[in-house]
Amino acid sequence: MTSNDPMTGKSVLIDDEIVARAAAWHLRVEGGEMRTPDWEEFTSWLEADALHAEAYNRTVEADADLVAAAHAGILDSAPEAANDQAPTSRRRFLAGGVAIAATAIAGVLLWPSQSQQDFTTYATAAGERRTISVSDGLRVEMNGGTEIAVADGGQPTVRLEGGEAAFFVESRQPGALRVEVGALTLVDNGTIFNVIRHDGWIRAGVAEGAIVANPDSEAVTLTAGQTLRLREGSGMIERGQAEPQDVTAWRDGQLAYSDTPAPVIAADLSRNLGVTVNVDQEIGRRRLTGIIQLDGDEDAIIANAAALLDGYARQTANGWMIAAN
Question: pLDDT value at position 136?
Fold first, then answer.
């Protein structure tokens, strides 16, 4: 795990033993096992070194990774409490390999410099799809109107320049793939996830496994069914929810939405159908919860989308316009 020294601004490596101990304390605190002697010992440990507190704070932020590791059977052992009380159900649930889990977290949070990597660019036209095999067990499925740059070395990195891509990572080793989308960085943890970059917005959702957004700063963890969106330049990550199967539904001929603004829907239709779809000012203020089927003729698909937005579709010189009734 790395931290920034407040005096020098340089990165400082936090020893794996400290990370493991931080994870152990977090499990005990969350498990409700702490008694007075435990709190005294915990406080002394935090105050002994600034890196202890930093490691603990980062471990708390990555708590979802610990839970995911428990479900996967990765955890193996936990330190004994200072009292003789029987372990709680959470202890029994999370019992196992705290050091291993902490190392996994450190692997997610620590990534070497990418400056020496060589990237290859791939692009699709609107309405076109393409699959890129980055390495064994790691592929990217590109939707229409998408451009990515891939560095497929020992630690693969994909840069999403624009459009939409679904990422499939079979490896259970945290950090098998790094995805860079503008200023946002996503690191996987045995994952299927989807990322969109369009019109100044970044959207991401997890269908399976987990990802960590900006692991060297906010370290926001998303697990299956969780989403984020970010207005580029704002630095504000907004979290949300989705059905896991809806995250990459475009691959199966569906666009699934939950309270989604109409301009986003128009952009998705444009990317998937290979035509330009716009909305008028009134429709642009509306939001949709529902599913748009991509089967059938272009006319019927866009007409159905317009009806769901309580509007109608008409052809223009440049494509389609969805207008209010």
Answer: 84
